[in-house]
Amino acid sequence: MPTTVTAYAAPSAAAPLVKTTIERRDVGAHDVLIDIKYAGVCHSDIHTVRGEWGPREFPLAPGHEIVGIVAEVGPEVTKYKVGDRVGVGCMVNSCGECANCKAGEEQYCAKGMTETYGSVDRDGSITQGGYSTQVVVIEDFVLAIPDGLELDVAAPLLCAGITTYSPLHHWGAGPGKKVAIVGLGGLGHMAVKIAHALGAEVTVLSQTLSKKDAGIALGADHFYATSDPETFAALAGQFDLILNTVSAVIDINAYLSLLALDGALVSVGAPAEPLAVNAFSLIGGRRTFAGSLIGGIRETQEMLNFCAEHKLGSEIELISADQINEAYERVLKSDVRYRFVIDGATIA
Amino acid sequence: MPTTVTAYAAPSAAAPLVKTTIERRDVGAHDVLIDIKYAGVCHSDIHTVRGEWGPREFPLAPGHEIVGIVAEVGPEVTKYKVGDRVGVGCMVNSCGECANCKAGEEQYCAKGMTETYGSVDRDGSITQGGYSTQVVVIEDFVLAIPDGLELDVAAPLLCAGITTYSPLHHWGAGPGKKVAIVGLGGLGHMAVKIAHALGAEVTVLSQTLSKKDAGIALGADHFYATSDPETFAALAGQFDLILNTVSAVIDINAYLSLLALDGALVSVGAPAEPLAVNAFSLIGGRRTFAGSLIGGIRETQEMLNFCAEHKLGSEIELISADQINEAYERVLKSDVRYRFVIDGATIA
Lengths: 348, 348
What we know:
- The structure is a homodimer of 348-residue chains.
- Chain A is of the alpha/beta class and 348 residues long.
- Chain A contains 11 helices and 18 strands.
- Chain A starts with a strand and ends in a 5-residue tail after the last strand.
- The model of chain A has no long low-confidence stretch (mean pLDDT 96).
- The A-B interface holds A 99-100, 103, 105, 108, 110, 170, 237, 252-253, 261, 264, 267-271, 274-293 and B 99-100, 103, 105, 108, 110, 170, 237, 252-253, 261, 264, 267-271, 274-293.
């Protein structure tokens, strides 16, 4: 018998979120039932529930930055016990058998990962996200939140943290490396914190200088306005790695010109329109334009441990669940520093 | 006193090449005078002398796939002596002081390499290429042609060889790797030979199957027609590396979809128009779109040694110098298997 739990969900792509109920499956042998304490609000939640990334079944409760406390475990569960502090990110399952899954890169599962909400689960049901009181997830897709990380500021790490940590780590951000972060929103602010903690020299490229003091406080060494054409002349050929966290269309060739020899520009944001890449921008300097999608479960745990060790939480604005539609409007206006997090106690 | 030598040069961007004379500087302390035996005909020669890659000074003698015999050396020259078999590729100088030059990647010189023809040399003169009887080049930009490589089939290695060897080597083509070569022209046919010799599993992606037998004979394991949409379905997610040797605009997202996790599509050809890259094509699979420009001098020598060891020359069609304009028309129609090479004896 599935359990009925309270959630905030969109009844349709055109409608605001409302308080409602959704079903959670019974706790299976390998499942963990989590009492949700906090759920981060990601820009992609908005794209998804509004049908901007393709049609979805409704009602749909979004939320893939979930932290909470284990309330029950199935008989075969070995990694977690009741009372453990845990998290769930953007995926709750994958085939487990393809080369990518076996390599621990479940986010690139050849059959497609099962996303935390809006995906077809193995039993045919549609997954429902973290804007709810409880969630049931197989233990292999549950992360441990280490001591030293408060639950509320840990929530955004499950998406914004891993989405930036993974490419920074993969492309070698560290001592002696010059790293630029494009955009200082939910993703960008975590990218600055993590790149700084990894030991890189960090430059923020933001539209204006309005967030300069905040960026420096987060750990940036330099801060430039991309609305100033001088910026692109001054920084030409400088960076080993540019992490683009902006989903809007940018002048990609201008940003590529900022890369040093063998430098890489890695996008974790994706505009709906294609980017017009001049092949000469890549050929001159053997430059790379690449993309990166969240991170695997093993790497997500590594990121959480790294953030605990370096005391890196997200900067958050805590909201009650009934403020979610207002929060969405503010996210769309970039009016948040830097992540809204729903207080799970206000969902019930 | 400069020396006057015979050359085939374009009097203007609109004119065919004509037999004429050009000046070569006196042999300086570090210079090598080379009697040119063969000069390969590269598609970029045509773009350049026709002003398609920007305005140039005329008359201009193209040619950057040069092989010959050392006729004279300056007093400080230590690497070469009269009678040595040598080659000159796409560049004849660089600043020597920037980080890229010091790293042996002179092609990415921060101040711009001095190209073999059409560049402003240190003395203010305009460099003139290999469609001539002799050339004077500083020894640091002269390559040794190893025994076991015939001079005529070695000529195209100085551009087509290094342009394909460098990215294949840099991106790890070798045993256990699946490599696709897009296009089977002057660059593509060398890419197939080199990738095969490096031990990779090689697939040719050509517009039609018309060159299939030839491609297999060159060392390809598989051959697919890109005009057949089934090709893209059949090969989805297969390749670790795709080397694009085609300068025309391609459906870049379709080719990116053929890459495995962490795969790279590297362009050495550059269309004038930008390529419309969908960021999702990169994010799904952490894929890379990159570019590569010839190779450094050290790596060019390494490539020549590799080709000598593996008996890899270019497939060539030897022409006399007075056939050059006809050859250009045939290059533009892709009617050459696979590289025209001018017999230096016919230039004088």
